[in-house]
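Subject: Sanity check before I submit

Could someone independently write out the structure tokens for this chain? I want to compare against mine line by line before I put it in a report. The sequence has 123 residues.
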Amino acid sequence: MLRSPYQPALLAAVLLASPAIASGNAERGRDLYESRCIGCHSLDTNRIGPKHRGVFDRKAGSVADFTYSPAVKGSSVVWNDETLMRWLANPQEVIPGQRMNFRVSQPQDRADIVAYLKRESGR
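---
Independent answer below. Compare away.
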């Protein structure tokens, strides 16, 4: 196999560009959730946004007692690590026409919130 001096740089660029999910800290995620998300969401009660308990592996727009936008209701998104990370980064990109206008800019903050939601999802 021929080796190019550019191969390590190419590999690094590919790895940095991939949507790898950082390891999340659920305890820190709880604090972030309580400071950033709780105004619109709760684990067990619908508010401006739907309740989050059980969100993992749930189809977007499927909480029976919440009124979703037509965009979310008609989407095929299923919530998992990847889709939640993308959603928190830019909800409009994941489901155009949705109504959530909030983003979490830092990847580690997103990973921590997702870790918290994952931990609490099955409780």
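---
OP: Matches mine. For the report I'm noting this point. The CA atoms of residues 75 and 88 lie 16 Å apart.
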